[in-house]
């Protein structure tokens, strides 16, 4: 009977670790080796200053918070995984997942950003500094078939190099729907 109780306890521990820790969950690949995962970002309206933010793993409840690290009205949300930004959009909803250790972004470094945007049609994207300097789009947008990051809309990946510090406007548009986010770069 003791052996049986020990086996049951061991199974319970493994199940708890896998379910609570997301041990078997897939995820958005880290890409740049940054710490954290895309999982576990779920915000209650109270935690995010009134903005709801569904989670990346679908069932894990964790808190993320607006850090104040954004610029020109775009909040950066940080929690258990990579930082997120919610864009301002017309006829669409727009989210960005920043594959970095922390914000602000660093000038001269390539940064992977995964975008989710509702609407219709192909995605067009550009990033521009207030002085008119364009960021280098190294790759993308590449449409993704899916991931564990739970946000509305279709998903694309991009790689950008922001050549100098400032508050960069990233503009995204589709045949139906357009939006933008402001990203802080130091």
UniProtKB/TrEMBL annotation:
Disordered: annotated segments: 33-63
Top-level taxon of origin: Bacteria
Protein name: DUF2914 domain-containing protein
UniProt organism field: Nonomuraea rubra
